[in-house]
Amino acid sequence: MRLSNSIAAFVVAGLSSAALANETYKFDPSGSTIGFSVHQFLGTTHGKFAKFNGRINVDREHPENSSVTAQIDVRSIDTRIKKRDDHLRSAEFFNVEKFPQITFKSRSVKQIGPQSGDILGGLTMHGVTKPVTLHVKLLTPLNETSQTRWGVTVDPVTRRDFNLVFAPATETVSGISQTVAINIEIEAKRAE
Fold first, then answer.
1. Are 152 and 13 in contact (CB under 8 A)?
2. Domain CATH number, residue 157
3. Where is 160: in which H helix or E strand?
């Protein structure tokens, strides 16, 4: 759910004057996290997606022409409880057989500060696309190895907006919140 937000983080990299005019970066999943948390009756459930990829195309001369795309493999959901993960993958919730990916595609990029920006795009999940704004901040500058790290924040998403609801009786008994917080840190490497 929060995976789409991670894509926007790299577009801001194109806004810095320290880099080349046109660059492409690829997400490095080994150093990145796309996670989420949702409140239930007595606590909060945390999870993440283990498999994802993304590409950031940076136009430093014209940052508004930069773009970000990301794809998340919904089957890779991990809440550290196999039975719950299997249920989330089932036709009752994510329905991974029909909707195997969550995607994000940027529509516009706006520089907010010297190391931050907003990326507006479409988040597609469970066959539904909704607009989201990713607020990105450079956490580590580009270096000789062409790696960088970004923090991404986004307003919580509402499950109902993406038709991600359980049966009415289950919704009532479970006490699962409709709002889901997204937690993203992206490490990216310049593509060769």
1. no
2. 2.40.128.110
3. none
Which residues form the domain of 96? 3-190
Q: How far apart are CA 94 and CA 96, in angstroms?
A: 6
In the predicted model, is pLDDT for residue 21 greater than 60?
no
Amino acid at 177: S
Q: How far apart are CA 14 and CA 59, in angstroms?
A: 6
- Going by their DSSP bridges, the two strands 22-27 and 179-190 should be labelled as antiparallel
Contact 21/60 with Cβ under 8 angstroms? Answer: yes
Under 8 Å between Cβ of 100 and 49: no
Is the distance from CB of 56 to CB of 68 less than 8 angstroms? yes
* Residue 152: burial class (beta carbons within 10 Å; 0-12, 13-18, 19+): buried
pTM to 2 decimals? 0.85
**pLDDT (tens digit per residue) in 37-82:** 999 888 999 999 999 999 998 887 888 888 999 999 999 999 999 9
| C-alpha torsion sign, points 128, 103, 46, 10 | negative
| Total domains present in the chain | 1
The dihedral sign for the CA sequence 135, 140, 142, 146: negative
